[in-house]
Automatic annotation (TrEMBL):
It is found in: Cell membrane. InterPro entries: BCCT_transptr. It holds the Pfam family BCCT. Keywords: Cell membrane, Membrane, Transmembrane, Transmembrane helix, Transport. The keyword Transmembrane applies. One of its GO terms (cellular component) is plasma membrane. This is BCCT family transporter. Belongs to the BCCT transporter (TC 2.A.15) family. It comes from Priestia megaterium (Bacillus megaterium). It is a multi-pass membrane protein. The chain crosses the membrane at residues 45-66, 87-106, 142-160, 187-206, 226-247, 259-279, 315-336, 343-367, 387-415, 442-463, 475-494.
Amino acid sequence: MKSIRHIVFWPPFLLLLGAVILSLTNREAFINLTTQANNWVIANLGWVFSVSGLLMVIACVAVYFSPLGNVKIGGPQAKPLLNFKNWFAITLTTTIASGLTFWGIVEPVYHVSAPPTSLGIEPNSPQAAIFAMSTMYLHWTITPYAIYCVPIIVFAFTYYNMRKPYSLASTLAPVLGSKLNGKGGQILDAVCLYTLALGMAASMGTSTLSLAGGMNSLFGIKSTPLVWGIITIVATAIFIASASSGLTKGIRILSSINVKAFYAIAIFLFIAGPTSYVLNLGTESFGNYLTHFFEKSLFTGGASGDTWPQGWTTFYWANWFSWAAITALFLGRIAYGYTVKKVILVNFVLPAIFGGIWMTIFGGTSIHMQMNGGTLSKIMDSNGTEAVLYAVFEALPFAKIIIPFYLFIVFLSFVSGADANTAAMGGISSAGISPESPEPKLWIKVVWGITVSFISWSMISFAKIDGIKMLSNLGGVPALLLGLGILYALFKIAKNPAKYDRTSDIDRKVNNQEADETKAV
């Protein structure tokens, strides 16, 4: 047990274990407890999530053009751990890729058939189509990746350039100095570990439903809790095996295959789907998104009592925040050797562009089908949310080939994201993690992988999509508070990077030492 940080590991593990036991022994109490907590979050903190998401966007743009943008992570002499292509592939598949595969087709159907009542948009109307697509741009492009990018920059800089420990407490070092050294920092890490576990469980839930829907479409196997359990067990075994192989093996190979599969399926759907409609709707909706960016970003429904933003935008921002801080431990670690400007390019700009293209193609296709007969919302009502995914592909050419291929993509996205985050969870709860010794013990990864998987299965079994949303909202609250602290830390670093960057001093000492040794010879 010397290999774990006890204060970090045990509190979140026992809380999650307690949730698992409660879900098995008293399902009603479990659902009531999580529902009440979730209702409080969305009713009282939706506006905080909205404002915070917007601030993250502003911060990324500002830092890109600031002097901090030219600072290299690890110092002037640092050499990248990964080439640019592999770096981008890992970043893309580690963050919200599993969400793209599920919500890219499903979410627009919700928005077209049930837009916010306060906006007075008629369901299944042209205005509803534009609203749906522009909302997809809001939820899946600039803002979510900004929420991810800010902690990545700060952790990478504090870990490599400030030489701080492998801990989320390190991200607050520019603000609090040494105050979080010791138990205070470990408590913070424990809280963040708990939030990631919930966020990861939510993401796993969407992937499980996606895979179950595909099994039903291909083989007629009904989507049930038993099937979800089998899928979860198989996926968990594979991502734990991948995580055990380390950064340069499992995750690099998986992400490379995954991103190529993304490109292939997107190109196919663009060609085989309603191409002209997708391009026209995407163009018009993107204009709507840009025109109303601030309005959409800060829409809370408070004036009219509309709960739509709480069920969607707040859910997403909570989900991204719950993942962002601790995911930064992994993505910040692989940013070594690149400038902050390139970190922003790979973690914010390029993924946002990819997300926009993906949503244009997949969202546009599902909107087109919904607008021509309303069949997708009927399928959703009768067969479940997961059935919508494959109903779209069944209407396209080569469905018998494309559906298995899409299942493969969903599975890879599931495994890639879980792989990276299991490694991050293992790392933050382990003792002795450093740039020289970056991998946690295998058994720690196994424990977290199994625990999170069971939480995910419990929530989708008892509450389906609502369960996924509850997990995201509950995990997002403490992560939001940390995110705001990290944002302030980024502001302080950007104001005077040289004040915090120790790499130049270390490089100077190394050069002086080498010079002295040369003279001695």
